[in-house]
């Protein structure tokens, strides 16, 4: 997969202009001081913030291009983002938190739980499956959030 970003976004007095291409198999770290636009950039890629100008293209599919009036909503993009607060549901255990992702896309409950268990095993969370977020360490919560994404 190739991701090409040419992003321009204005939020209040802040303006983000960023351009990068991420090739298949590459890992990219976004670094910068507080307020430099790291989260804003990730929000644009995830479909949580529309561009004012530029375009975002994933494997030839245009996800955002204001000139062409093209915007693919977050729930229609095959990607996720995990923010620092993790946003786990306190009333749900690990299995149900991870199953929330597929369920939100219309997957039947039984199949969503099967998918969740696959991700729980991949992230080494099997022993924690019945716990709720307040019973997990910060690192464990992060792994649950990544599994859900």
Q: Can you tag this structure with a few keywords?
A:
149 residues; alpha+beta; 5-stranded antiparallel sheet
Short description:
This protein is 30% helix and 21% strand. It is built from 4 helices and 5 strands. Strand 3 and strand 4 form a beta hairpin.
What would you say this structure looks like, in words?
By secondary structure, the chain is α+β, with helices and mostly antiparallel strands. The protein contains four helices and five strands. The chain has helices at 38-46, 94-104, 109-122, 138-148, and strands at residues 3-11, 14-22, 53-58, 61-65, 70-71. Strands 2-1-3-4-5 form a five-stranded antiparallel β-sheet, with helices on one face. A hairpin with a 4-residue loop joins strand 4 (61-65) and strand 5 (70-71). The longest helix is centred in the C-terminal third of the chain and has 14 residues, at 109-122. The radius of gyration is 17 Å and the shape is globular. The mean pLDDT is 91.
Tell me the layout of helices and strands:
Elements: E1 3-11, E2 14-22, H1 38-46, E3 53-58, E4 61-65, E5 70-71, H2 94-104, H3 109-122, H4 138-148
Antiparallel strand pairs: 1-2, 1-3, 3-4, 4-5
Helix pairs in contact: 2-3, 2-4
Q: Mind summarizing the main beta sheet? A: 5 strands, antiparallel
Series of H and E elements: EEHEEEHHH
The number of strands is: 5
In angstroms, what separates the terminal alpha carbons?
A: 18 Å
Instruction: Categorize the overall geometry.
Output: globular
Q: Which radius of gyration do the C-alpha atoms yield? A: 17 Å
- Helix share, percent: 25-40%
Number of helices: 4
Mean pLDDT: 91
Low-confidence spans? none
